[in-house]
Structure formats: structure tokens, C-alpha cells
Amino acid sequence: MTKYEIMYIIRPTVSEEARKALIEELSNIFTTMQSEVTKLDEWGTRDLAYEIEKHDKGYYVVMDVNATQEARSEFERVIGLKEDIIRHLIIKDVR
After folding, report:
1. Are residues 43 and 61 in contact, defined by beta-carbon separation less than 8 angstroms?
2. What span, in angstroms and rounded, lies between the C-alpha atoms of 13 and 15?
């Protein structure tokens, strides 16, 4: 398994219940595919460096995972389909 750091930004207009469900759904992708989420950190709503899809704020979530290639690929596929995610970044952790 490989360590990754993942950051994604949720639209600020998403309700709190929907946001919690979305975070849970994305985390479950790893736990159901022989991978693990070692850290999940919700930074909350913050200003964006530049406007994205007419939003100047976003809800930031950062997670560290130990994931298989298949789990990472499935996560990227699913997060790309979610309209409430306005940006995401996956970085291979070399620490």
C-alpha cells in the first residue's frame, strides 16, 4: 500500500448534513477496498485563493490514507463525478 495525502474542497452551499454524508461516503471508499484512512481533518470553510465556479469560499477536508492503487483509482473516479466537490488534489506521501 502507498501513503497519500488527499485534499478536497466542498461547495460552501452544501448543507451540513449533506456535507457529513459526502465526507463519510468518500472515506468509505478506502475502508471498503482494503485500505485505511489514518487521519481525517476538516479545516472548515475558508477563503479560496481565487474564484472557482463562482465561489470565493469552500469547505476544506484533508485526509491521510494508506491505499491500494485500486482504491485510489476508485476514489478519483467517484470524486470526479461529485458536483459538490469543486477541487481535489492527491499527493503521494514520501514521509
Report:
1. yes
2. 6
Alpha helices in the chain (DSSP H): 16-31, 69-81
Domains of the chain (ranges, CATH numbers): 2-92 (3.30.70.60)
Q: For the packed helices 69-81 and 16-31, what is the interaxial angle rounded to 10 degrees?
A: 160
Q: What is the pLDDT of residues 12-64, one digit of tens each?
A: 999 999 999 999 999 999 999 889 999 999 999 999 988 888 899 999 999 99
Show the cell assigned to 35. 485500505
| pTM (two decimals) | 0.88
**CA–CA dist 68, 84 (Å, integer):** 25
